[in-house]
Amino acid sequence: MIVFQDIYKRFGKKDVLRGVSLNVPKGKIQYIIGTSGAGKSVLTKHLVGLIRPDKGRVFFDGRDITDCTEQEFYEIRRRVATVFQHATLFDSMTMAENVALPLRKHRGCKQHEALERAMEFLKQVQMADYAHRYPSDVGDGLRKRVAIARALTMEPEVVIFDEPTTGIDPLAAANVDQLMRHLSEQMTVTSIVISHDLRSIFRVADRVAMLYKGRVLLEGTPEEFRNTTNPVVRQFINGDAE
After folding, report:
1. Residue 165 vs residues 39, 156, 168, 196: alpha-carbon distances, Å
2. Which of 39, 115, 220, 228 is deepest in the core (most CB within 10 A)?
3. What is the value of pTM for the model shown?
4. How far are the Cα atoms of 25, 85, 119 from residue 125, in angstroms, in the given order?
5. Is the per-residue pLDDT at 60 higher than 70?
6. Band of residue 242 on the pLDDT scale cut at 50, 70, 90
């Protein structure tokens, strides 16, 4: 589905990615982990053309998209949605209005039609009862679910989740994990998840890749990460200072 092939990226004098290769299978939940500044977000931005590699190739659905024009990336961005760490909902709009917005702007739906369809997406994330509430009325976990509903309005094939469970309570985090699993199993959505949340990683990931010093240090199943003897990976998993 998605292939990052030998990706290099430098900003100024800092080498962020130094030959990253990673295959993301279709319909699976791929976690990308690593310390802050390891290049996790930088890597995913290559998929939607926000960053171009200094060297290497990016493939999406069998197509080399590395040298796509900005216009060509518009189509790719319609197929790849992003759910940011902060829900980025409009405070002046209800939950339903937030979800309806891309339907109006990008799908050409009239207001009443967009709101009707928004309700369908809110139901998918168990947020229909909150449709007429405002973002300030609910907690971070519920706002993130609405942000996911909004992302789904474009019927994406891929969703990039940036720290989806950071800053929310364990129950809300479990609900977000459950929703990602639903997207994978029921809707065949491919998820790329940037996260430090070990509970989430071992609960829901199909594959995990750890970036370290600009390269993939280890890529495999959660079980392979549990059983690894690599000292750097063990330090990350155990949260050891040394």
Report:
1. 19, 21, 6, 9
2. 39
3. 0.90
4. 24, 17, 10
5. yes
6. low
